[in-house]
Structure prediction request, 414 residues.
Amino acid sequence: MSTPRVVVTGVGALTPVGNTADELWSALIQGRSGIGPITKFDSTGYPTRIAGEVKNFDPLVYVDKKEARRLDPYLQYAVASAVMAVEDAALDTGKVAGERFGVLIGSGIGGITTLLETHKTLLEKGPDRVSPFFVPMMIVNMASGLVSMRFGAKGPNSAVVTACATGNHAIGDSFKVIQRGDADVMIAGGAEAIIVPLTIAGFCSMKAMSTHNDEPTKAMRPFDANRDGFVCGEGAGVVVLESLEHALRRDARIYAEIIGYGLTGDAHHMTAPDPEGDGAARAMAASLRDAGVDVSAVGYVNAHGTSTPYNDKFETIAIKRVFGDHARLLAVSSTKSMTGHMLGAAGGVEAIATSLALHHGVLPPTINYETPDPDCDLDYVPNQARKQQVEIAISNAFGFGGTNATLAFRAYSK
Prediction:
């Protein structure tokens, strides 16, 4: 029996640049940043006082008031994006065999808002005032659980927690679930809601974030010589994946085909990437090997591109290791330059961006690219979107702990 082909048929996103996938895509091709001053708490005294916040989100569009009160923001974002993805796919979930329908949505950190608020309640009011919903509201696998209940998805149900690589691992693992015949449809992606005092303070203490507080929209500048760190973002990115046979049977619109998945470990450092780009390079190479395509076939790389001094230099090294002379012909861009770094949600949002780039024949730019860095000397699609038909693209995601995941996509054709 031949291995099923797997396609992307639905996309749902909640991001700092827009509350739907259409709004996300519009902002990306316009080169519009979603970074601004932190409004969710008083950030006075913090070295970094900017973030990519989700704006004007109403959870009551997606869940009732009673349920909304029980859900950590990351769960609200996950459910909303899953609902949008299913609607975008025009998927009649009642007609999908429940046992062949799965969910795999991850988060890097999970319900930290709930954790902090509940700890405050415990200290101030005592243990009997802790909500019975505290643990379910906080745990990472509840995103997949709630979405499965919403749509009657009784097939594979799991979650991934791999820091900033979470979204890619969730989608890659779901791709493999369908390939091996364990499901026909998977809802997959990542969600994150970490713009809270403790998390921002922690990243500030690591000296990992930009301090361009006076120019928030210019703070994220991947591959630019003057980059000084990332800016936290929040939200969710969720896709509907289907076997091609299932998608064709219901005459679904197809954005792109997912054709390869590579995952590796650096075994190097808790937070710093391997200076030789070894793990990142092996993840990219593995995704192309899995896809059965030569490096020369790739036209676009949606980079991890975090705007940190180390990542952007070492990712560039890794791309050159994998692609050799062809690296000079690649278009490489970082959509984080606009969304900020959405941590566990980043891979889901960037898989959507990559799929839509193939679908529309437009490559999103790397904004704020002003001063070339001799160590970052590839074509980063600077500042303006580019009309360019690409057949094969890859999307990178690398996380703390040295975890790496790359997804390979092909423009869909029968």
About this structure: The chain has a mean pLDDT of 97. The longest helix spans residues 73-88.
